[in-house]
């Protein structure tokens, strides 16, 4: 397996070196002429070299990375951490607008910025050396200004080559790098900001150039032989609203507007490709190709209705949804599930952290949702009303490839409000690990802050709906410090309402949550990536040789520049849709058999009169009383105060302490600053959040 990783690393480094060499004279004068043979020009036009150098390496890693993840054994829980890796992952920069940045992230960011500066400098060096070829009547400074504006667009293309990788949730590239879709969102945000700054500068630069040279009519030109200026203008007009609504303040206040405008990315991609042409499209193709596969498979998965078994409701406005899942679906703690409830909104999908452990609950998957917005309030109202069935669709789960947190001697879980939800799955996973022989689990210290005492009832979810035994709770070293920040004294116990459970009737149209492509998900995904890319190359070769090449070489006409890009986009979509649909339908047929078996086993679910939900309160509390008492005994509640993170963390004596934080940004950043201070080298920080 180490040899496979070395091969992937060599291919990836080689791919990066090609980007480094791209703006140099060596690439243009030596590499391109040697690689551009008659065969590639006949079957792929001017795209052959770019497909070989820029597309093939990443598609190779993506396809064979899937096979590697499939044949790799189920992730083991190592008790030893690499000191160098731990040092590189330590936060070194905590500031707005970057958020929490580790040493490793800072190194790669610096390398990427260096690549952009190097590329711009070389592009300008080469272009300024050919200024004697500038347009007739054009002044030297005007030619330089035009050259700088053009090269800023080239640098933006480099950002686009990486832009879609972080948001390709099901790709093999993220787990190969030890990343998750949740943790890599910030890279997409960074790349998006940089690329938009460059593209806006590119556009404004050309508008100024056309204005000072009296060529404003060029802005509406759609050339048959070169780039389309009007396509570029349309692309930037689409990009600016997407960019503006993605800023943190706007996104938090007007999320639905951000969500809607961001779906303009399809139009943005189309006009962007029409502007840059087919040659540059092949340079950024891997990210778009893999994103399209992932997005289409997610669309197919989301069309299925998911079997919702029950919901556990707390009076503080928190609900736990319990779904049926296939036993073959394996996921790790802190994974994320996207949920859609058509009764509330057919378009809105919301991510929630999975609170269950697949090792403890083989046939169930749970998420915890706190009412914080319009959508979640409507969901809470629907569940607490007289419903006997609720139609739900899900997508995922997506998460880390291993339970890396188990390697620590001590685990500190810092949460604020609903930030406790990912830690529920971690504690359940630790409980399940105690049942395995010769498995050492870390001591757990949970620090949770709540606004009101009613919210502390969320700790009830530490015990799954299937229940657990008191011995299982007692086998873990669990210490819970709960802080109630807005109440100075404990309320009367009579006001505390018990947790209630709502059971839903099964529907023959619902199916359990399963991996999109079944138990062999990674293997089938690798087959889709490789087969669809080969089909694209085959179709592109046929179209170029039989249709485009004869027009270019056997007639006086030149095939339209933009039509080549349209053909590329069309053939990519056709290849992805055909291959993905065939594989998905085949795997769905196999999954349906397992789903039918699960449905037969669920006939014993509690029933009630038609048209009414099954509510239970005291009975459930009695069944859960013993493990619940174990949680209560491990909990110390503090009223009217906030946790002193520095004192708590510095008092920990273990040599390897994992610190996980989830909740409000300020809280996460405060904890990160303590871990980054260097005063306690035993602290290893990790933030769990979709935001910076």
Automatic annotation (TrEMBL):
Q: Where are the transmembrane segments?
A: 7-27, 51-71, 92-121, 154-177, 189-212, 224-244, 265-293, 522-544, 565-586
Write down what this protein is called. ferric-chelate reductase (NADH)
Organism phylogeny:
Eukaryota, Viridiplantae, Streptophyta, Embryophyta, Tracheophyta
Keyword tags: Electron transport, FAD, Flavoprotein, Ion transport, Iron, Membrane, Metal-binding, Oxidoreductase, Transmembrane, Transmembrane helix, Transport
Supply the enzyme class, top level: oxidoreductase
Q: Which organism does this sequence originate in?
A: Hibiscus trionum
InterPro entries on file: FAD-bd_8, FAD-bd_FR_type, Fe3_Rdtase_TM_dom, Fe_red_NAD-bd_6, FNR_nucleotide-bd, RBOH/FRE
The way this protein sits in the membrane is described as: Multi-pass membrane protein
**Which reactions appear under catalytic activity for this entry?**
2 a Fe(II)-siderophore + NAD(+) + H(+) = 2 a Fe(III)-siderophore + NADH
A single GO BP: monoatomic ion transport
Q: Name one GO molecular function term.
A: metal ion binding
Task: Give the main localization category.
Answer: membrane
Q: Is this entry keyworded Membrane?
A: yes
**In its keyword annotation, does this UniProt entry include Cytoplasm?**
no
**Which cellular compartments is it found in?**
Membrane
Q: What is its EC number?
A: 1.16.1.7
**Which cofactor does the UniProt annotation name?**
FAD
Domain of life of the native organism: Eukaryota
Give the FAD-binding FR-type domain ranges.
Answer: 301-404
Family per record: Belongs to the ferric reductase (FRE) family.
GO cellular component terms given for this protein: plasma membrane
């Amino acid at each position: 397996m180490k040899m496979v990783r070395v091969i992937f690393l060599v291919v990836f480094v080689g791919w990066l070196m090609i980007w480094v060499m791209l703006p140099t004279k060596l690439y243009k004068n030596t590499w391109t002429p040697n690689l551009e043979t008659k065969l590639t020009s006949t079957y792929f036009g001017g795209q052959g070299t770019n497909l070989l150098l820029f597309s093939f390496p990443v598609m190779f890693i993506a396809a064979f990375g899937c096979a590697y993840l499939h044949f790799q054994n189920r992730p083991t829980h190592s008790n030893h951490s690499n000191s160098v890796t731990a040092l590189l992952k330590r936060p070194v920069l905590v500031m707005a607008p970057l958020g929490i940045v580790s040493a490793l992230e800072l190194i790669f960011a610096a390398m990427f910025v260096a690549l952009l500066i190097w590329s711009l400098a070389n592009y300008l060096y080469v272009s300024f050396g050919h200024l004697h070829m500038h347009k007739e009547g054009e002044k030297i400074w005007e030619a330089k200004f035009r050259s700088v504006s053009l090269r800023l667009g080239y640098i933006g293309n480099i950002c686009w080559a990486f832009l879609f990788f972080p948001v390709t949730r099901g790709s093999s590239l993220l787990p190969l790098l030890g990343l998750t879709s949740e943790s890599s969102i910030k890279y997409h945000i960074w790349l998006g900001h940089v690329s938009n700054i460059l593209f806006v500068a590119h556009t404004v630069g050309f508008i100024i150039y056309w204005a000072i040279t009296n060529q404003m009519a060029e802005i509406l030109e759609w050339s048959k032989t070169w780039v389309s200026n009007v396509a570029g203008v349309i692309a930037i007009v689409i990009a600016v609203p997407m960019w503006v609504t993605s800023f943190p303040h706007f996104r938090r206040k007007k999320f639905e507007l951000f969500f809607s405008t961001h779906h303009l990315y399809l139009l943005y991609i189309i006009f962007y490709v029409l502007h840059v042409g087919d040659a540059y499209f092949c340079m950024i193709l891997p990210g778009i190709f893999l994103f399209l596969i992932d997005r289409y498979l997610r669309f197919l998965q989301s069309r299925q209705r998911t079997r919702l078994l029950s919901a556990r409701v707390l009076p503080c406005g928190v609900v736990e949804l319990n779904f049926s899942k296939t036993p073959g679906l394996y996921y790790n703690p802190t994974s994320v599930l996207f949920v859609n409830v058509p009764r509330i909104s057919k378009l809105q999908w919301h991510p929630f952290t999975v609170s269950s452990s697949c090792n403890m609950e083989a046939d169930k998957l749970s998420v915890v949702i706190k009412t914080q917005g319009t959508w979640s309030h409507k969901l809470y109202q629907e569940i607490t009303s007289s419903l006997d069935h609720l139609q739900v669709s899900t997508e995922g789960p997506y998460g880390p490839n291993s339970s890396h947190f188990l390697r620590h001697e001590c685990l500190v879980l810092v949460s604020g409000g609903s930030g406790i939800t990912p830690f529920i799955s971690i504690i359940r996973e630790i409980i399940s690990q105690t049942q395995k022989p010769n498995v050492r689990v870390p001591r757990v210290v949970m620090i949770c802050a709540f606004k009101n005492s009613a919210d502390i009832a969320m700790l009830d979810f530490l015990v799954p709906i299937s229940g657990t035994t008191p011995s299982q709770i007692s086998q873990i070293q669990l210490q819970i410090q709960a802080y109630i920040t807005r109440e100075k004294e404990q309320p009367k116990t009579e006001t505390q309402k018990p947790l209630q459970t709502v059971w839903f009737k099964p529907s023959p149209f619902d199916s359990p949550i399963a991996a999109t492509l079944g138990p062999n998900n990674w293997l089938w995904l690798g087959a889709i990536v490789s087969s669809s890319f080969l089909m694209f190359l085959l179709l592109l070769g046929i179209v170029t040789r039989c249709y485009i090449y004869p027009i270019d070489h056997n007639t006086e006409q030149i095939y339209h520049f933009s039509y080549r890009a349209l053909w590329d986009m069309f053939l990519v979509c056709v290849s992805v849709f055909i291959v993905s649909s065939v594989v998905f339908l085949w795997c769905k047929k196999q999954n349906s058999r397992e789903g039918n078996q699960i449905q037969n086993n669920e006939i014993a679910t509690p029933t009630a009169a038609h048209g009414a939900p099954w509510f239970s309160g005291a009975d459930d509390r009695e069944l859960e009383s013993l493990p619940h008492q174990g949680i209560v005994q491990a909990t110390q509640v503090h009223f009217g105060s906030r946790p002193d993170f520095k004192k708590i963390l510095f008092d920990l004596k273990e040599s390897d302490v994992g610190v996980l934080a989830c909740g409000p940004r300020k809280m996460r950043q405060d904890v990160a600053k303590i871990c980054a201070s260097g005063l306690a080298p035993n602290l290893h920080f990790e933030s769990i959040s979709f935001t910076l």
